[in-house]
């Protein structure tokens, strides 16, 4: 049987940072209110496009794997904030990294996007259709924010992460997965003024990212926990055999609730939401990279990951890490310099949102 090993990993974190104290200058809130409810202390805001974030993350993953981009067969970009809809953003990333001739596609499952994309690329490798793929998750969630709405203004950030997959004969990579969607309740998390359903000849105004926090909390904990149980059964694993839990970084309370339901010790859980906020599809990809960097993921580790997003999509995955936790090479890819603070970057959007809402 053919498996899809993760042989490279990389991330791209925008330099501009917005702290909770910065947010309090925009909406009626403070650091204690945000931290106690979400676990978030800061988030990043990008001065470049989603494609540029994805490109840098992909280049780091390719260097880490020691793989030439020309040998890549497939580029998948998980995002709900594409730079362009037509042509797809993955095609620009493919061009930027030099993956000549590789198939390129975007996939949108919101916060579950990285696990969905990982499953799709793994299946193609297992089927013998391709041998090498780069799976990227990149988001500019701050682009959607209505800065008059406290509930969403405090939550989201920008960033990207990527992995390289390569065909191999030994069991490793994504070994069990469960994905689904509870579409009947899709309206509890959505952006109502975006997409081709709208009249493009009428002014639309700032995006409204709307959600029902309590309902999302209940569904997220239940959906991700049950999906993890299903994956453990598929893989014939016990909870004690899980070395690392890498959950979607949406809210610290959700992470802790899933951790408690799965009975996973604190030292086995990857948490970085405090610095980055919710970067949607990119959260797991970035967290996976940092779990390796911090030594949390060791050779041959058993990793459980789970996500829940708009749609309402959900997924859980069991990943068996390979033997290597050190990069083969390090890319010099970086974002162009940013000469503005986080508050300066969002100032035009904040001005445009004035008077549209106040929560």
TrEMBL record:
InterPro entries: ACP_syn_III_C, ACP_syn_III_N, FabH, Thiolase-like
UniProt keyword annotations, A-Z: Acyltransferase, Cytoplasm, Fatty acid biosynthesis, Fatty acid metabolism, Lipid biosynthesis, Lipid metabolism, Multifunctional enzyme, Transferase
Gene Ontology molecular function: 3-oxoacyl-[acyl-carrier-protein] synthase activity; beta-ketoacyl-acyl-carrier-protein synthase III activity
EC code(s) of this entry: 2.3.1.180
Chemical reaction(s) catalysed: malonyl-[ACP] + acetyl-CoA + H(+) = 3-oxobutanoyl-[ACP] + CO2 + CoA
GO cellular component: cytoplasm
Pathway: Lipid metabolism; fatty acid biosynthesis
Function of the molecule: Catalyzes the condensation reaction of fatty acid synthesis by the addition to an acyl acceptor of two carbons from malonyl-ACP. Catalyzes the first condensation reaction which initiates fatty acid synthesis and may therefore play a role in governing the total rate of fatty acid production. Possesses both acetoacetyl-ACP synthase and acetyl transacylase activities. Its substrate specificity determines the biosynthesis of branched-chain and/or straight-chain of fatty acids.
Recorded family membership: Belongs to the thiolase-like superfamily. FabH family.
Subunit structure: Homodimer.
Stated name of the protein: Beta-ketoacyl-[acyl-carrier-protein] synthase III
């Amino acid at each position: 049987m053919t498996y899809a090993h993760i042989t490279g990993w990389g991330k791209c974190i925008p330099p501009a940072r917005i702290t909770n104290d910065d947010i309090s200058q925009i909406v009626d809130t403070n650091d204690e209110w945000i931290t106690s409810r979400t676990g978030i202390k800061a988030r990043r805001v990008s001065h470049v496009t989603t494609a540029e974030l994805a490109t840098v993350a992909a280049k780091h993953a390719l260097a880490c794997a020691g793989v030439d981009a020309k040998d890549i067969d497939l580029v998948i970009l998980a995002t709900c904030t594409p730079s362009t809809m037509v042509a797809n953003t993955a095609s620009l990333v493919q061009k930027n990294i030099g993956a000549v001739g590789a198939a390129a596609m975007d996939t949108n499952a919101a916060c579950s996007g990285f696990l969905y994309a990982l499953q799709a690329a793994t299946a193609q490798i297992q089927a013998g259709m391709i041998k090498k793929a780069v799976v990227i998750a990149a988001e500019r969630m701050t682009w959607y924010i209505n800065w008059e709405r406290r509930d969403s203004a405090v939550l989201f950030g920008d960033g990207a992460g990527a992995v390289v997959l390569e065909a191999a004969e030994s069991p490793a990579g994504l070994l069990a997965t469960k994905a689904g969607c509870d579409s009947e309740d899709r309206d509890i998390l959505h952006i109502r003024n975006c997409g081709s359903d709208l009249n493009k000849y009428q002014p639309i105004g700032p995006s409204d990212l709307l959600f029902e926090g309590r309902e999302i909390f209940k569904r997220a904990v239940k959906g991700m926990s049950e999906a993890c149980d299903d994956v453990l059964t598929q893989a014939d694993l016990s909870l004690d055999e899980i070395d690392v839990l890498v959950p979607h970084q949406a809210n610290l309370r959700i992470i802790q609730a899933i951790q408690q339901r799965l009975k996973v010790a604190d030292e086995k859980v990857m948490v970085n939401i405090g610095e980055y906020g919710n970067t949607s599809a990119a959260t797991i990809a970035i967290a996976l990279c940092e779990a390796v960097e911090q030594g949390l993921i060791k050779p041959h580790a058993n990793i459980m990951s789970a996500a829940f997003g708009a749609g309402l999509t959900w997924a859980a995955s069991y990943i068996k890490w390979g033997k290597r936790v050190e990069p083969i090479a390090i890319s010099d890819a970086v974002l162009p310099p940013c000469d503005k603070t986080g508050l300066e970057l969002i100032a035009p959007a904040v001005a445009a949102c004035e008077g549209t809402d106040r929560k």
